[in-house]
Amino acid sequence: MLQASQVLSEEGPLVAEALPGYLPRADREAGDLDAAIRHATQGGKRLRGVLVRHAAATFGLDPELVMPTACAFEMLHAATLVHDDLPCIDDSDLRRGRPSCHAAFGEFTALLAGDALIIGAFEALAVQAETVDAAAAIQVVREFAQFTGATGLIGGEQADIISEDLPPDADLLRYIHINKTAKLICAACRAGAILAGAPADGLQTMTDYGMAVGLLFQVTDDLLDVTGDEAVVGKPVGADDEAGKQTYPGVWGLSGAQEEARRLAAEAAAAAAELPGETEFWTSLPDLVVNRDK
Amino acid sequence: MLQASQVLSEEGPLVAEALPGYLPRADREAGDLDAAIRHATQGGKRLRGVLVRHAAATFGLDPELVMPTACAFEMLHAATLVHDDLPCIDDSDLRRGRPSCHAAFGEFTALLAGDALIIGAFEALAVQAETVDAAAAIQVVREFAQFTGATGLIGGEQADIISEDLPPDADLLRYIHINKTAKLICAACRAGAILAGAPADGLQTMTDYGMAVGLLFQVTDDLLDVTGDEAVVGKPVGADDEAGKQTYPGVWGLSGAQEEARRLAAEAAAAAAELPGETEFWTSLPDLVVNRDK
After folding, report:
1. Please, what are the domains in chain B?
2. Per residue in A162-184, pLDDT tens?
3. Which of B34, B115, B153 would best serve as a mutation to test chain A binding (most A beta carbons within 10 A)?
4. I need a surface site. Which of A119, A154, A275, B41 has the fewest CB within 10 A?
5. Measured between alpha carbons, how far is A158 from A119 in angstroms, rounded to an integer?
6. pTM value?
7. How many residue contacts between A and B have a Cβ separation below 8 Å?
């Protein structure tokens, strides 16, 4: 296997290239809906899709076979960004350096494009059953829903919004970031492993790894909002603080947040060392996350 | 079997009673999200859930076994109502005679509750695999996504919005109502049949029936908006006309729409007569839909 940076730069584009084939195709009667769906799914590193592929490969399944599931994760992720950007939540006109979906297509179209992407993600998870066992595919559907819905990402998003302007609270911060960010990344690691028929202990290691890297991803995201370069990050810097968000630097201070990032990176590396086969992708990914500039 | 009116009044409450058990449970950190999800899923006749049950029974499967799927249809239906009512679409403060979700809980909570209900619907479809074959369950996930997403309900919703104030257009009207309303009702009939292992010809009959009844449901909905009693219907009457919506009375006139309702009822009855076993529920449902007052 290769360094995570090389893998992401090689395989991210593969996921991006496959994605349009799994997106739902809205009819012309639905006007801009199709264009909005495509707009919303452009850009990004495709980390979640690459994680699905690599988890499958780690447990012996050809990563090309899990492309529908890899694309499902990208669709769900895109959907949550579209809805987060809406005026009633973050009211953000900029996403990945381009107009957000509602800035480009209007509010109701963005709302419905997000809905269509959530539903499209599940359609892709079902298409996965063409190439893997139906029981594994349906298990992924179930977990994906649990990790992304009210008991996961959506619940974390709601907690994130309503905790704005509350005093810094370490427990609440952890709840928000586990649910809003870490669970989707963890679910991507688990999904690839489940589809590959990973044994229970391997799946547990993948879970530990995914949660640690997922939290690490959010800690560095919080740090970039303080220390990042707006032109590189692709969105306004300092927005978390302005919005009164619960963040790692806000709760732990800058050096405390950096220390937490190192701790999570070590936790992920320890889990990675227990995975079967070549583990260089998994062991090098935490450093890449810590050192990213966007 | 029994008359559709009796079945709905007996089985609708069974679906309503089972539904909370399949709703996702948001944590207390997510504030009102859990209450908003529950608020959004109250009320209604539970027609779609009852259709799932009856389609299963028609093809020999105990309807109690398909309750997760029945509840999934109710969740998705509730989610679309929550999002439709939002300020950027219908801006409706009233739903089923009660405050709409955003009127009761605010806009971002309603947006996220709708998202959580869409995702929760798929979770329930996956839970279905505990009691039926995983291949049948995953087929239902796939169809449910196709019938509700950009190629179905969501696409129809977008077409409905953007066609407001356009001149009456029979083809566009049909597109909207097939996608926005008929496909979910048809999918409910198909889902029960698929889970019961219906043969291909039975599934086709169920499809023909579901599309006819689904369109009939929308024609009578349009008619109620013209001729209904606001106190009974539970939402403002005349709203379609005010919003410049494409409607059956708008395209075909009042008597033309009533004629179309009779034609669709006859089409559904013809399909019902080909179904196996006792068909009284199926044959009597079209009349019930035509004669409803809400």
Report:
1. 4-291 (1.10.600.10)
2. 999 899 899 999 999 999 999 99
3. B115
4. A275
5. 20
6. 0.96
7. 199
